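In this section we walk through a basic example: taking a raw amino acid sequence and producing a predicted 3D structure, encoded as C-alpha cells. The instruction is simple. Fold the sequence below.
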Amino acid sequence: MDYPKTPRQAEFIALAEALAGPIAGRADEVDRSGRFPIENFRELHEAGFLGLTIPERFGGLGADPLEYALAIERIARACGSTALAANMHLSLMGKLGETGVWPEETYARVARDIVGRGALLNSANSEPEMGSPSRGGLPTTTATRTPTGWVINGRKRWTSLASALSYMLVLATIVDEGAPRRGNFLAPAETPGIAVLNTWDNLGMRGTGSDDVVFTNVELPLDALVQIDGSAVPGDGNGWAAFGGAAVFLGIAQAARDEAVRFAQTRRPNGMAGPIAELQTIQHRIARIELDLLQARTLLYATAEWWLAHPEERGERAWRLVAAKNTVTNAAIRVTDEALRVSGSAGLAAASPLQRYFRDARTSIGQPPIEDIALTTIGKAALGLLSPPRRPDSDGARPAEPAAAGPRRAD
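The resulting C-alpha cell sequence is shown next.
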C-alpha cells in the first residue's frame, strides 16, 4: 500500500523523517552502551512529536492511529529502541485521549505538561511474580487505602523510559474494605519513595531504559486511582498500541531490508565480476524479504484503515488487531534473519546494523499479545468461541486493566 494518501499523513511522515536522521546517527552508540537516548526525546519534544497522539483541543497534533503508525514506523527505521520507548508514551496518550476515561482536568494537565516541557508517561505493570499482566493475575504491588489517599508499595520490572518518566501509571492490588482487585494509579515520578534501579541489560531494544522501579510507602491522593478502560467508545482505543507497536517492528524490518539490499549491491568479492546482487541465491533471499514486507505492510495498514472506517465492527472483529500484530512481528523476525543470511558473517560484526535489527526484532516475542494468546484469539474467533465483548457498567466504569508497558517476558 502506498502512503501518504492524505496531506495529514504526508505532514506527519515528513515530521518523522526530519527527526530520523540524527536519531539514526546515534542508534549504534545507544545500542552498544544500553543507555536511554535522552537527546532523542529532547528533539522529539522540540518538534512536537511527543504530542503527536494528543487531541488538538489539548494542545497536541491530533494524529489518528493510522497517521501515528505511519510516523512511528519512520522513527523505528532509524532506531528501534527510541521508537519502541516513544510508542509506550504515545500510544497510551492516544488511547486515553480517545476514550476519555480520565477526568478531563487530569488528562489536560498531563497533556499540557507533555506539550509544554516534554513530560513522559508510561505504565509500570510487569512483575516477575505475576508474569505478563495480560494473563490477569493480581500484582504483588499494593495500594493500601488510608484516610487521605493511598500508599503504594512494591517493585515493577521492564518499565520503559523509567529514568525519564514524569508520570507512572502503576498497576497495583487495591487493599481496602472490599475484595482485592486491580487498580491503576497515576503517580508523579518525583513523588518521594519512588526509586528507579539500573537493571536493564537486554538482548535487544537496549536503549528503551526498561529498568526496575521500587515503590516504598509512596503516598498518593485519593484521585490518583484512575481508569484506563471502560469507555463506551467501540474498541476502547485499542488501535493505538496495536498499530503503533506493530509499526515499530515493521520499521525495523524495513531498515534491515534496505541494508541487505545496499550490501548486496555493493559487495564485490574478488572472484566475481560484479556484486553479489547478481547471484540467484541472493535474489531469492531478497525476494523473500520483499514478500514478507509486502504482506505485513498491507495487512497492518489495511487493518488500520478498516478500524477507522468501521468503528461499528470493532467489537466483534477485534481479533483482526491481534492478527495484524502477530503477522507483522513474525515477518520482522524472518526479514531480519534473511538479511543476515544475505550478508553472511559480515552482518554479525558489531559494526553492522544488521545484527542490531536482528536482536531488536527478536524482542517482539514478548510484546503483548504474545503468540499463544494471539493464536488462541484468532482460532476462537474463527470457530465462533469468543465471548461477546464486555460492555461498560451503567456508570461507564469497569475494572481497571493494564495498559501497554515496556518490553516484558512471555511468561
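Looking at the output, two observations stand out. The mean pLDDT is 93. The beta strands are 121-124, 142-145, 149-159, 167-175, 181-188, 194-197, 211-221, 225-226. In the next section we compare this with other chains.
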